[in-house]
Predict the 3D structure of the following.
Amino acid sequence: MDENIIERVRELRKRIERYNYFYYAKNNSIISDYEYDKLVQELEEYEERYPELKDASSPSQIVGSSLKDSKFTKVAHKKPMLSLSNTYNIKDVEDFNSRVKKILKSDENVDYVLELKLDGLSISLHYESGALVQGLTRGDGVVGEDVTENIMQIESIPKFLREEVDLEVRGEIVLPLSEFIKLNQQREENGEEPFANPRNAASGTLRQLDPEIVKSRNLDCYFYYLADSEKHGIHRHNESLKYIENLGFKTTGIYDVCGSIEELEARIGYWESHRGNLDYETDGMVIKVDEIGLYESLGYTTKSPRWAIAYKFPAKQVSTTLLDVSYQVGRMGTVTPVAELEPVEVSGSVVRRASLHNFDEIKRKDIRIGDRVFIEKAAEIIPQVVKVVKEARTGEEREIVEPENCPVCGSTLERKSGEVALKCLNERCPAKLQRRIEYFVSRDAMNIDGLGSKIVERFIEIGRLRDVADVYDLHLYREELENLDKMGKKSVDNLVKSIEESKKREYSKTLYALGIPFVGKYLANVLANESKNIDLLMEMGEEELLEIEGVGQKVAQSVCQFFKDEENLVTIERLKNYGVNFSAKEVAKGEDSLKFQGKTFLATGKLNHYTRSGIKELIEKLGGENLSGVNKKLDYLIVGEKAGSKLKKAQELGSVTILTEEEFMDMIS
Ligand code: IVH
């Protein structure tokens, strides 16, 4: 046999094993899925042509990782957890359909269930008499890791089912995109390495030895498979999904029975263009034969069933040129390098900038200015530079030099030993002030509408914003505001209204808005509940803070430090003088506080008494849910002036109760 072929197969095996190791043991993909699949496909083709090159140790025969490095107890799966073979176009789906029909020796159309393929990590859960008893990761497909304790921390996983049944279900653990973004922001602020994508974050989280960390990260889980369905009297896959939904399991709810290739193609097309609207990442769709009785005749390969196949969406990676590197200064002074790119389209939008995270990352990937780079939209939202095309180098590329001074205020940057983050320590750095104000007005904090970065930047420049408390003086500068880009009288009115409204925010939100290091939304809530008002909180010493559940050394120190700082005390005093709320209200837990429970609302048109976010917050407080469009699920449409198509649609539907703003106010009073 040709030496070159033997050498290529050896190389393919080595490379795939290395990628597997990073993917499964280190939660880090160092190659795109598409490229990985191509390498596996190439190896499989050689092995098919030259069977003498194939043996049981080939990565083509192994699903998942070797479990060498795992810290968890290993448990054998009752049935192997297999993978799926991948396809990338409709022609492959047609081939799959023909293969199925050939094996079944049938000319008739086969019913398929088309589901979303979530990009997380698979999990197998065992229930006895309706109680969750064990959770296993896939591991190498035959033996998994026992992560039961961590699974218990995931809120959406039922610990008890609605019936006392014994069963095994399989599903995908994911980190919702909104949580992923928050987690990475936090990590970057703390000088920790951000996760490359939600899948790595989910996988890294589930393998934490501390269940408290798992709890704090808000993982989610969607189920797609019931083992031994027929034992439960179920003969169709789509029925098994409905059955597990009724027992209390979450599915994506996105599964359709399709009776033809045309139908499959149409649904795949739909989800390919709509997947960006989901709060979790999907990398494709799964097509499964619906009739479970056919599974045995269709059979299995060593790695995957012959009754299902994955259709992968096209890769989201594209290449472009790195034109330059700029720097962003965070709220706590962390300086993050940002890639300035030649504009390029990725999954439907034009990307001009991408995060480079930190200098360790730049060095590891050996990124230089002028390089041809591949970028990818992690989580469909934040673009990242994933790798450099070294073959395209001309020699003209320039090294990216770590800055010594803050790009905004010029003060010397510091890097603590053992940390990756570069920091600007100047408390008066305008960039830090800008981030602090942006954080202060953000949705989870004071929720002030209409104070965008441009306005903040300009008002810092002209000396009108020197501190977060200055936000409450902005109404004095109406004229200057109105003269700003695009700020007409109406937007200024709304902004002023929103600033005024924000004084009534709950204590926990005001506390969060102060931006005490390490005090995120969750801890702000805990501290607000424990202290009743800010004066009492300020009096607490480290010891006392440490007694609060959820508060550790780092947080206790940070809180005390924050309240010792003279400038922070002045800010708090000023905010109090403006009338900003710093105490917890005793909420009556009567019927009234949940007046809108189970009801859905939407506001449309111009409102006179509320801002858009203000009315939404009020509805949520009263237990109601906000919808974004008019549909059959909508109970109430609140109409302001000049309500348009939404009102028309609600009238057409007939099932929606239409309220004027005044009627809505009567309802809550
Ligand atoms: S079915 C034998 N359905 O994709 C059946 N898998 O690439 C195997 N996945 O290991 C699984 N969404 O982790 C199935 N709707 C879905 C899925 C799904 C995501 C994952 C799962 C599997 C991997 C295969």
